[in-house]
TrEMBL record:
<dbReference type="InterPro" id="IPR015341">
    <property type="entry name" value="Glyco_hydro_38_cen"/>
</dbReference>
<dbReference type="InterPro" id="IPR000602">
    <property type="entry name" value="Glyco_hydro_38_N"/>
</dbReference>
<protein>
    <recommendedName>
        <fullName>Glycoside hydrolase family 38 central domain-containing protein</fullName>
    </recommendedName>
</protein>
<dbReference type="Pfam" id="PF01074">
    <property type="entry name" value="Glyco_hydro_38N"/>
</dbReference>
<dbReference type="InterPro" id="IPR011682">
    <property type="entry name" value="Glyco_hydro_38_C"/>
</dbReference>
<dbReference type="InterPro" id="IPR037094">
    <property type="entry name" value="Glyco_hydro_38_cen_sf"/>
</dbReference>
<dbReference type="GO" id="GO:0009313">
    <property type="term" value="P:oligosaccharide catabolic process"/>
</dbReference>
<keyword id="KW-0326">Glycosidase</keyword>
<feature type="domain" description="Glycoside hydrolase family 38 central">
    <location>
        <begin position="543"/>
        <end position="614"/>
    </location>
</feature>
<dbReference type="GO" id="GO:0004559">
    <property type="term" value="F:alpha-mannosidase activity"/>
</dbReference>
<dbReference type="Pfam" id="PF07748">
    <property type="entry name" value="Glyco_hydro_38C"/>
</dbReference>
<dbReference type="GO" id="GO:0006013">
    <property type="term" value="P:mannose metabolic process"/>
</dbReference>
<dbReference type="InterPro" id="IPR028995">
    <property type="entry name" value="Glyco_hydro_57/38_cen_sf"/>
</dbReference>
<dbReference type="InterPro" id="IPR011330">
    <property type="entry name" value="Glyco_hydro/deAcase_b/a-brl"/>
</dbReference>
<dbReference type="Pfam" id="PF09261">
    <property type="entry name" value="Alpha-mann_mid"/>
</dbReference>
<dbReference type="InterPro" id="IPR027291">
    <property type="entry name" value="Glyco_hydro_38_N_sf"/>
</dbReference>
<keyword id="KW-0378">Hydrolase</keyword>
Length: 1052
């Protein structure tokens, strides 16, 4: 024994020694570099295939060097072995570039290179590989992710390196134990922990392997500071620290293999005798289909990630991976069919789970209910095609809140379980549950499990597992939690590092027992304790990203127009007895619902592509509706005269008033889903003449009075007041703490300044309407406001033509009402949400901006009447103490405006601010009375006020014959779904949270049924005798209509 062993031992000096040992190990994993020859093609916008790259002219590339290309363009690199070089068995390609790339061999993608994936085994027998490189930042959230700088993308390394397997394995053996030790020290000595571990985290990590080529012997000086003694630690911890210290000495003396032998002894000591809690891990990538990149780049990211995961599944037999979004699988099928064949095999083998239910990871707050349902139906259809069965899980790791209609829609689409990571972003009211029964607004229930500590970027360190374990609030009932692991958004997904760490955390003392497993099997086990889980009712709000309901106004507007066009086309097909519309229309609308597209949080390039596409699709879909009706007219043999050469078609399952015939025309009422020729259109019931005076507008139902300044002083409906003061346009200074496109700070509400009303206004009129036109302004910005009443209308319309020039501002419309009850009702997909409007409660105070599906109503506590505000295509609302408001424009900094230096930006010069410029916005104000008819409820008016009938060149007298609905006026029929010539479906939902009975009578020659799923099937319920249907709060009904021919009901 050395006499030095009798010296006093200082355990507080262990952490600097561990850091040094980890650094040495990292530096010794990849050795003996061999430079490779690199040549490249010219960059091409949007990419080009491997076959074309092989035929392209190549230019030599020096390494290291910077290379330049237009943003998001594709450059192919050919990487070749030196002449006469024979690869060694342990040779790996080390490719270190700021951009991201996918390695290809013989026309197939093999592996992805990015900030978290730098090495890949050189393929046997290959003399060269090709790398498809996208000129954009590699990775997002990892510390090694670097952007594109002024000189371009820096290619640091292109070489072969040999892998020292002993050093690789010893590194993770020591890293996991060191992480474990740090967590134990933080628990045992919370006051002294920071001083003990000072400088501890500054060693090179394997998943940023370029740092493994730092010059040896470089220090930080961070270890040179006083460290407290360990006076109060457990005997186990003290023993482990000494054994780790001794193991480091063995490593320095005998090398990595000897270190591994010593560390195995410590792992045996720390082996947990019984599992306290189990972590079920699944590999996770969470690819943003668009965000900081356009759609084509998102598809390339899918190819890169799928190739990487396939390699990891081959290398690690215990590893499991799950991926959602059929849109990505389709993209990989187009771009790399051979890779997709291999993915299918891995799905069939059970370790790759194709799961998620929706076609894309969709927003669920702004799409209408039918659009959310179609995302599920399209997604489930594609999952069946991919793997022979639908997905049992709705997987939404990054959506910005979750609508209360989801549990019902999930049931309609055969989805039983729900998962998200996103609730870790909540900043005020922590979500209380990990595992729970989610009860939707209408009472439908699904089983849910959510992460409460770790988001979708998870390196699976002991700290990550322990945090999620401690946050598992249902651990007393179910001793497991689900933990997706990998780098998300665009970072490439799981890594070998993550899998190595998990291997070492299977049975560490005081740690969750970590295992890879299947998502569906986790939920199947959770089902066994379902009856013991808490219940959460209604929406699951994020309490963050409030600005996304408003940012990028144009994409929201054109998206909503395409929704309405599809509603029109499907109604036309129901009327004509035709089948469904072309599936591609719905697929592209649903794609636009992706949670970074419709919310407005993506880069310029995304909207430069999606907005024109949505506009084009709207035209195509409306033309489909016209063609459908025209074909039906031709088939029926109807003849039209010169006076009958235009037909109005009502695409709504509600009566629609329209003006027909120009200046000398008349107000007509179009029956639901009906196509009527001019000569047969029914005139609307006579209404009092429109009155339009300087300070007064009236149509006999609604009266608006203006004061001498031009402010709206009174609004009444059938003599009852709707407002308690003048509505205002208010501009708020909008400089959020972070993520400008996403957030609205609470403090912004303290900065509001009303726009100035420049004149009292002038009277304007047109066929069937009259109004008062005014101009409001702020600085160089102007808003032309038209307060308009239509003949027979039950709401005051507010049309705004905005020329907005104020960066970093939020423009809102706010209206005081006399309805100051405890709650207000906000429109939601297939229903509504009652939310607190009185201040003081933390939950209410966190709702300074909330999502609503185009309307809000302030109410008294009786909830029978109220004042409402409708919007054509706006989704950010508020209700505070009777004041209802809607956000119109948010001129935030466009996401990643400076991601590329100007020299690498393709296309025209772009404004760095969203929503500056000209906008046309439509709102409406009104009042609901206790005895209002169905057509006067806000859910119905949000459809009819902004609707226009479809005008077609020729038509017919046929229509989709509507069932008669009596009672429950809060029940809104909103969508007609075509099935075939003899079947269609009517969607209805209750919009106020009321209970009652409706009487629904079948039209002559038709049978009714209540569908169990979204479309007709064998399990549908017979319609109640007598037509009495019990309606629950916010209930949703799919009503099947089957035509009788010759007395026989024709089913699909």
């Amino acid at each position: 024994m050395s006499t030095n062993s009798r010296l006093l031992y200082f355990p507080q000096l262990l952490f600097p020694r561990l850091r040094r040992a980890l650094t040495r190990l990292a530096l010794s994993v990849w050795r003996d570099p061999v430079p490779l020859e690199v040549r490249r093609t010219r960059p091409v916008a949007g990419g080009f295939p491997f076959e074309k790259a092989r035929q392209s002219a190549l230019s030599p590339v020096a390494v290291p060097s910077a290379w330049k290309a237009p943003g998001f363009s594709t450059t192919w690199f050919r990487v070749s072995l030196p002449d006469g070089y024979t690869p060694r068995p342990d040779d790996h390609l080390h490719w270190d570039d700021n951009a991201e790339a996918t390695a290809w061999l013989d026309g197939s993608p093999l592996f992805g290179f990015d900030a978290t994936h730098r090495q890949w085994p050189w393929p046997k027998g290959a003399g060269e590989v090709w790398l498809e490189s996208i000129f954009c930042q590699s990775g997002i959230w990892h510390a090694a992710a670097k952007g594109i700088g002024p000189v371009g993308s820096i290619l640091n390394h292109a070489r072969l390196v040999r892998k020292n397997e002993d050093a690789w394995l010893a590194y993770f053996d020591l890293e996991v134990l060191t992480d474990w030790l740090e967590e134990e020290i933080r628990r045992a000595l919370p006051a002294e922990a920071e001083q003990l571990v000072a400088g501890f985290r500054n060693w090179p990590e394997m998943d940023s392997a370029s740092s493994a080529f730092l010059p040896d012997g470089v220090g930080t000086g961070l270890a040179n500071r006083w460290r407290p003694t360990l006076d109060r630690v457990s005997p186990l911890l003290r023993a482990v620290m000494r054994e780790l210290d001794d193991a480091v000495s063995v490593y320095h003396d005998q090398g990595a293999a000897a270190l591994r032998r010593e560390l195995k002894k410590i792992y045996r000591r720390l082996r947990e005798s019984g599992d306290v809690c189990k972590a079920v891990l699944t590999g996770h990538a969470h690819i943003d289909l668009v965000w900081l990149w356009p759609e084509a780049t998102g598809e390339q990211k899918a190819v890169r990630t799928f190739a990487t995961v396939r390699t990891l599944l081959d290398r690690y037999p215990e590893f499991h991976f799950g991926y959602s979004q059929p849109a990505s699988y389709e993209a990989v099928e187009r771009r790399a069919p051979g890779l997709m064949t291999q993915v299918r095999r891995q799905i069939a083998g059970g370790r790759w789970e194709a799961t998620g239910a929706m076609y894309v990871e969709s927003d669920t707050l702004m799409p209408c209910g039918e659009a959310i349902l179609r995302s599920l139906l399209i997604g489930q259809e594609r999952f069946k095609t991919l793997q022979g069965a639908p997905s049992p899980v709705l997987w939404l790791p990054d959506a910005f809140g979750f609508s209360g209609c989801l549990p019902r829609l999930m049931q309609l689409a055969d989805v039983s379980w729900f998962f998200t990571n996103k609730l870790v972003w909540r900043m005020i009211n922590k979500f209380p549950h990990s595992s729970f029964v989610w009860r939707g607004n209408d009472g439908a229930e699904v089983l849910a499990h959510v992460s409460r500590a770790i988001g979708y970027n998870n390196p699976a360190r002991p700290k990550n597992l322990r945090l999620e374990s401690e946050a598992n609030s249902q651990a007393d009932v179910h001793d497991e939690f689900l933990l997706p692991s990998g780098w998300g958004d665009g970072g490439g997904g799981p890594t070998a590092d993550i899998i190595e760490r998990v291997r070492r955390q299977a049975d560490l003392r005081n740690q969750p027992a970590a295992r890879w497993g299947r998502i569906d099997e986790f939920y199947a086990r959770l089902e066994k304790v379902r009856d013991r889980l808490p219940v959460w009712r209604g929406e699951i709000s994020l309490e963050a990203h409030r600005g996304t309901y408003t940012t990028q106004a144009e994409v929201k507007e054109v998206y909503r127009r395409l929704e309405r066009a599809l509603q029109t086309a499907e109604a036309a097909r129901c009327a004509a007895g035709a089948g469904p519309v072309d599936a591609r229309f719905w697929a592209r609308l649903v794609f636009a619902q992706f949670h970074d597209c419709l919310p407005g949080s993506s880069v310029h390039e995304v909207y430069e592509e999606i907005v024109p596409e949505l506009k084009r699709l709207e035209k195509e879909v409306l033309q489909d509706a016209r063609d459908t009706l025209a074909k039906r007219a031709g088939a029926s043999g109807e003849k039209t005269s010169a006076k009958q050469n235009e037909t109005l078609f009502n695409p709504l399952p509600l009566p629609l008033q329209a003006w027909q015939g120009g200046k000398n025309g008349r107000l007509v009422t179009l029956p639901p889903l009906a196509c009527s020729e001019n000569s047969t259109t029914r005139a609307a019931e006579s209404a009092p003449a429109l009155v339009a005076e300087k300070n007064r507008l009236s149509n006999g139902i609604v009266e608006a009075r203006f004061d001498r300044r031009g402010l709206l002083a009174r609004l009444s409906v059938n003599g009852a007041d709707a407002l308690a003061g003048a509505p205002r346009l208010i501009a708020y200074r909008d400089v959020p703490y972070d993520l400008e496109a996403w957030e609205i700070d609470r403090q912004a509400l303290d900065t509001g300044r009303p726009l100035a009303l420049r004149d009292a206004g002038r009277i304007e009129s047109g066929p069937g309407w009259a109004g008062l036109a005014q101009r409001w302004s702020r600085g160089e910005s102007t808003v032309d406001v038209l307060w308009r009443l239509r003949a027979g209308g039950v709401a005051l319309e507010v049309e705004l033509k905005v020329d907005w020039r104020e960066p970093e501002s939020l423009l809102r419309f706010e209206a005081p009402t006399p309805f100051r009850g405890q709650t207000a009702l906000f429109g939601a997909a297939f229903g509504g949400e009652w939310r607190l409007q009185q201040p003081g409660d933390p939950q209410q105070s966190a709702q300074w901006e909330v999502p609503a599906n185009r309307w809000v109503m302030a109410a008294d506590d009786g909830r029978q009447e109220g004042a409402f505000l409708l919007a054509e295509a706006k989704y950010g609302f508020s209700a505070r103490d009777g004041i209802i408001g809607v956000s119109l424009l948010k001129s935030a900094k466009v996401t990643a405006t400076t991601a590329f230096p100007p020299a690498f930006r393709s296309g025209p010069e772009r404004c760095p601010w969203s929503d500056l410029g000209r906008h046309a916005i439509r709102l409406a104000l009104g009042r609901l009375a206790a005895d209002s008819p169905r057509e006067a409820y806000p859910a119905a008016l949000a459809e009819t006020v902004f609707a226009e009938p479809l005008r077609v060149a020729s038509g017919n007298r046929d229509a989709a014959v509507m069932p008669a609905i009596e009672g429950m006026p809060s029940m809104a029929p909103l969508w007609a779904v075509p099935v075939d010539a003899d079947n269609w479906v009517l969607r209805l939902h209750e919009s106020m949270g009321r209970r009652g009975t409706a009487h629904i009578a079948a039209p002559a020659g038709w049978h009714l049924s209540i569908l169990e799923k979204a479309l007709p099937g064998a399990a549908d319920k017979p319609f109640p005798a007598g037509g009495e249907v019990e309606i629950g709060p916010f209930s949703f009904i799919s009503l099947g209509l089957r035509r009788e021919r010759d007395g026989v009901s024709h089913n699909i």
